[in-house]
Design a protein that fits this description.
Chain A has 135 residues and is of the alpha+beta class. Chain A has 2 domains: 91 residues, Ribosomal protein S6/Translation elongation factor EF1B (Alpha-Beta Plaits, 2-Layer Sandwich), CATH 3.30.70; 30 residues. Chain A is built from 4 helices and 4 strands. The chains are: A alpha+beta (135), B mainly alpha (127). Chains A and B meet through strand 2, strand 4 and helix 3 of A and helix 7 of B.
Chain lengths: 135, 127
């Protein structure tokens, strides 16, 4: 049974007291770890330093990094295990996004089809509107 | 002479009042208790006030922000958006206060909880 490929977003926080190049190294190790775990890294986005809403391992702020990956659930579990072990990563969250993207695409499709219909209904409304004003 | 003048004034007043009275039931349903009570008063004003006046006294109909602004995705990364639905102490604000519709409140709650897990939003405010 082949495992399904799914899209996930993995957001993790790197401790803030590292130097710039060290942070970059941590991110690249996570990336290579992800590929080793069996997920394809689609995108890496550094969201910069942010103040944490609460203290995490006695840190008040952290470097947020967002990873968009694609792969089976078991591989993502392995990636999570690696993040848990990685010492400079203080927090992480994995969110499955493919279902949500599908839902959004569906809504967008419906909305677009409505937009195409709208010009006709707008004309009809414009025709009916002046009538009560004159009467 | 004076009587005649008075009569004229009253008739014009009534004439002005009637179209306003005819309009009010059609336009704002919520303003009904304010509208008919004010009918014998100055003719021209109820129509103008009927739009904005009674709404001050009666609760404004709350609408779902996500439905109105057509916000499809409620994402845990969008802290600015989520923060509007979190009370000062970090609690999720109930639907009955914000007017968010049920499906959107469900998504909102899930997003807020995800944001809390990654320290974008607090579980509880300090002290």
């Amino acid at each position: 049974m082949p495992q399904q490929q799914r899209m996930y977003e993995v957001m993790f926080i790197v401790r803030p007291d590292l130097a710039e190049e060290e942070t970059a190294r941590v991110i690249s190790t996570v990336e290579s770890g992800a590929t080793a775990a069996g997920v394809a890294v689609k995108n890496v986005e550094r969201m910069g330093k942010r103040r944490l809403a609460y203290k995490v391992r006695k840190f008040q702020d952290g470097m947020y990094v967002l990873l968009t990956v694609e792969g089976p659930g078991s591989a993502v579990a392995e990636l999570e295990r690696r993040l848990r072990v990685a010492e400079p990563v203080i927090k992480y969250i994995t969110v499955r996004v493919d279902e949500e993207q599908k839902r959004l695409a569906k809504i967008k499709k419906i909305r677009d089809s409505k937009v195409r219909q709208r010009p006709r209904t707008a004309e009809a409304a414009a025709d009916s509107e002046p009538a009560p004003a004159t009467a | 002479m004076a009587d005649e003048e008075k009569k004229e004034v009253t008739t014009t007043g009534e004439a002005r009042a009637t179209p306003a009275a005819a309009e009010t039931p059609a336009a704002p349903r919520f303003g009904r208790p304010g509208g008919p009570g004010r009918r014998p008063g100055p003719g021209g004003r109820p129509a103008g006030r009927g739009e904005g006046g009674p709404r001050k006294f009666f609760r404004r109909k709350k609408v779902c922000k996500f439905c109105v602004e057509k916000i499809d995705s409620i994402n845990y990364k969008d802290v600015r958006l989520l923060q509007q639905f979190v009370a000062e102490r970090g609690k999720i604000v109930p639907r009955r206060l914000t007017g968010v519709c049920t499906p959107h409140q469900r998504r909102l709650t899930a997003a807020i909880k995800q944001a809390r897990n990654i320290a974008l939003l607090p579980f509880a405010a300090r002290y």
